[in-house]
Each structure stands twice: as C-alpha cells, then as structure tokens.
Amino acid sequence: MIVTREHSYPFIPYRPERYPEDEMLRRGRGFYELMDQRRSVRFFSDDPVPRECVELAVRAANTAPSGAHQQPWKFVLIGDAETKKRVREAAEAEERRNYEGGRLPPDWREALAPLETTSDKAYLETVPWLVVCFAEKYEPRLDGTKRKHYYVNESVGIACGMFIAALHTMGLSTLTHTPNPMAFLTEICERPSNERPYILFPVGYAADDAEVPDLTRKPLSEVLIEMP
After folding, report:
1. Would you indicate the residue range of the signal peptide (predicted)?
2. What pLDDT, in 10s, does the model give residues 87-119?
C-alpha cells in the first residue's frame, strides 16, 4: 500500500513529570537492574505467549525517535508453524555457508568461538513467535516518486532496542539473529523492494534448562568518558 505523510505537525505543550531526586534514582536503578539481567537466549520453551505481549513490544518500539519522524520500520509477526519452518531452513542454509562453508572471515570466527554458536537454529521453530524487523529505505509516493528516509539505520536500531527492552520487561526472551545475507526473509515475508531485513527476533520464554555464557559487561569506567 502506498501512503503519504507529508504535512506540518501542530505543536502541543509537553510537560513530562519531574521526580524528586531520590525517586529519579530509584527508578533509574530499578530499570538498570532489570536490564542488567537481560541475556540473549538460544534455548526456548514452546509454551504459548499471548499475541498481545508481542503487540505491546512493537507498540513500545514504535515510540522510538526517528529521523524527521519518518519511522522507517516494519515489524512482521510470524506464528504459523510452516512459515517458521521455512525461515529456519533458509536461515540454516545461509549459516552453514558461513560456519561450514568458510564464508565467515577468520577474525569473526575467532570472536564467535567463545559463544559456541553454530549453524543450528532449531529455536526458530520452537518459539511461539518470530518477529522480523524491516528497515524502509524510502516510502513510495502516490505519484510514483520516492520519499527518501533519513538516518534509517540509527532509527531502526533504536526501535529494535526498545522492542528488546519491552520484551524483557514482560519476562520474555529473544535473540538478535542476523543471518547474512537475509534476502530470504524478504521473500518469505513478502515484503516490497523498499524494505530490507534488519533483525530476526525469536520471541518466547527461555527454556527451563536454558544456559547462556557467563559473560561480564564492561564497567562504567570503560564506557562513560567525562570531559574535563
């Protein structure tokens, strides 16, 4: 469907609530502690997840800031078993070329080795939902011209981060799966040429016996640089 959103926005008052300092810190620490528990999961339960949970996560993602408020993203929801099977088979075919076929460069293989990832993506069929985020390069106009989108990668990346945070807040798990190349997702999801696959998210509960690498995150002193 071709749509246009070229218009001027009215400006309205914005008065976000200001909290006392102790409440600000309490909220900030609580959010940090919640997100610090988040891990990428590759072992999922097949227990059903309410569709509304995924919808709420997409709603949260849709609040993300974007270049010129163009919101250059689409989220495709897959729950059908046959379609999930097609996605898994296509993803594994590409990953086998990466892992077993030598397409991954040596330095990338070395970086991945401690995580013990392989071309096996069985979880793509196990999870109740797959969500594929597509980035819109441009938007077709009714007259056949193209409305260019700006800061697409930055905008879609922020939206995906908010999607992940929303899932984790609800007790759900996911993984940022980016098989390369990902053109098969365009075909399976029947998306137009102005969109490109960005991230494939399996969405569900972590399996009861799920394990993750015992990783540590960089300390604040390494990621926050204060100018003199």
Report:
1. none
2. 999 999 988 888 887 777 888 788 888 888 888
Count of CA atoms in the C-beta half-sphere (13 A) of 109: 13
Cα-atom radius of gyration of the chain, to the nearest Å? 20
Contacts of 81 by beta carbon, 8 Å cutoff, 6+ apart: 125
Rounded-to-integer distance, Cα 21 and Cα 27, Å: 10
β-bridge mates for residue 75, sequence order: 133
Q: Cα–Cα distance between 184 and 90 in angstroms, integer?
A: 7
Residues whose CB falls within 8 Å of the CB of residue 107, separated by 6 or more in sequence, listed in order? none
Domains of the chain: residue spans and CATH: 41-208 (3.40.109.10)
Q: How far is CA 176 from CA 72, 148, 202, in A?
A: 19, 27, 8
Quick check: 60 and 166 in contact, CB under 8 A?
yes
- Work out the angle between the directed axes of helices 152-169 and 21-36 (0-180°, nearest 10): 90
**Ranges assigned E (strand) in the chain:** 73-78, 129-136, 138-140, 146-148, 173-174, 195-204
Query: 171-191 as b/e, with b when 16 or more CB fall inside 10 Å?
Result: ebbbbebebeebebbbebbeb
Cα distance between residue 142 and residue 2, in whole Å: 6
Residue type, 134: F
pLDDT at 5: 54
Q: How many residues does the chain have?
A: 228
**CA–CA distance, 56 with 6 (Å, rounded to integer):** 27
